[in-house]
Structures are given as C-alpha cells and as structure tokens.
Amino acid sequence: MSSGGPDLFVICKSCGSEVSPYITECPYCGNRLRKRAPKLERGGRPSEKPRKPKRPAPSLGPLRRGEIPGIRHDARPYATIALVAASLVLLVLTKAGIVNLNDVALTRGRVDWHVVTAPFTYFNTGYAFVALFAIAIFGWLVERRHGPLAIVALFVAGGAGGMALVAVTETFPYAFGGNGAALALVVAWAIPDLLDLRRSREIDGDLLGAALFAIVLLLLPIADDSADALAGVTGVAAGVLLGVPLARLRSR
Questions:
Q1: Distance between CA atoms of 100 and 119, rounded to whole angstroms?
Q2: What are the tens digits of pLDDT across the range 119-143?
C-alpha cells in the first residue's frame, strides 16, 4: 500500500488473504467484507464514510375539500352566515307584507320576546345594508378568531341587550335593527389591537377602517329613527365587556 494513494488491497479477517477493496465478499473463503461496494472518491480512493439515513420528507395530512397545500384551512363562518341570512329573509318577508313589522319590531309598551326578533328586523334597505355589511365583515373576523359561540354571544349582548335596555328606559314609538349587534362585533374585533397598541406592540389590523364603521353605525339614528342611539351605545359596551376577556383568553 502506498501512503496518500488508494488502497491496493484489504486483508480478509477470516482467511488473511489480500483481496481487492472494491468487492463485498472474499473470493477465497466467501467471508462478507462489507454490505455494499464503496463509493470512489477523487484519486480512486474508496470512501469509508457511512451513508446518512435519509430523513422522511415532511408531509401534511389529507387535504380537505378546497384546501390549498401548505395553507391552514379556515372553517366557514357558519354562525355569521346564519345571522345575516336570517335578517335578509325577514327583510324580504317584511317588505313583501307577509310578516307584519309590528309583530317582530320592538314597539312602545312591549318588553317581551320582541327584544330578540328586533335586531333581525329591517324595513329601510339602506339601514339594512350598512348594519348587515358590518355584521358580515366583523362577524366573520371575530368568528375566525374566537369561534361561533363568541359571535352569537356578542350579537345577543349587543343586539337583544340593547333592545331590552331601550325598552325599559325610553319612551319610543318603535325600535329595530342590528346597529347594537354590529357595534358589539366591531368593538370586540378591535380590542386585541387596541391592547397591543397600549403595550407598544405592532398591529396588523385596520383600526382606522373599524373606527369608520363604528362612526357610521353610531350616526345611523340620525338617518333612520328605528336605529336607536341607546342600542348602539349598549353595543359598544357589550363589545368592550366581552371583547377584553376574549382577547386575553386568546393571548393565553
């Protein structure tokens, strides 16, 4: 064997014969010299480095319908869709005269189950467009962040809670619509970003857009008498009272 050059032979441990370093079995005694023939490096020297086992390539689980590989699947906002759809159906039925407005709206001297139906009730299509658009956008965002139970709780607290407060504290001819529910959702969505701003952290949300929605919803009573201002203020309070614990729960 020459130093620095390739090995000309190796010694069989079984019979002591000199054999080629490029074979796997001894031709004299049949002893197994190595599992596989060695790779040749530059200069003809056989490589003695063992091969590293290949790691299995990372793989995702079975994809759901409509899911893009590598992108997290977000469930559809079923609760938001149901709330908006119920309001639209009731709007069509009221406009068509199939459902009497007095049967679903909150009217003077009536504090009963109408506080639940009133947030779903609209007669002015402009009011319906503004409120339902806000509910659809921020309801979807809140539901994606906290789940369907959170949006139902916010809708009930801001919508039905606002109507109940209107019924026991004000003298009014009628009140209906989801301005309180919409404001509860807008405020609850904005709470995590507001808390991050207070801690001097960067935020990704569009707080300016949320503020614009909130201002329009608060000013709705000027354009439509059925959108009660107290219901809107109650919606803001409900958004804060429920939004803060939801934000802290999510951060944990």
A1: 15
A2: 999 999 999 999 999 999 999 999 9
Residue among 154, 163, 160 at smallest CA distance from 245 = 154
Q: Do you know the residue count of the chain?
A: 252
Per-residue model confidence (pLDDT) at position 27: 75
Nearest to 35 by CA among 48, 24, 46: 24
Which residue stretches of the chain are H helix?
Answer: 78-95, 101-104, 114-117, 125-146, 148-155, 161-169, 179-198, 207-223, 229-251
Q: Which domains does the chain have, with CATH numbers?
A: 9-41 (no CATH), 78-251 (1.20.1540.10)
From 219, 162, 154, 161, select the one nearest 191 (Cα to Cα).
Answer: 154
Between CA 103 and CA 77 the distance in angstroms is 29
Q: What pTM does this model have?
A: 0.69
Q: What is the DSSP letter of 178?
A: S
Write out the two tokens for 129.
Answer: 């467009």
CB 188 within 8 A of CB 242: yes
Mean of pLDDT values over 151-156: 96
Residue 55 DSSP SS3: coil
pLDDT digits (tens, 9 = 90+) for 187-216: 999 999 898 888 888 777 788 999 999 999
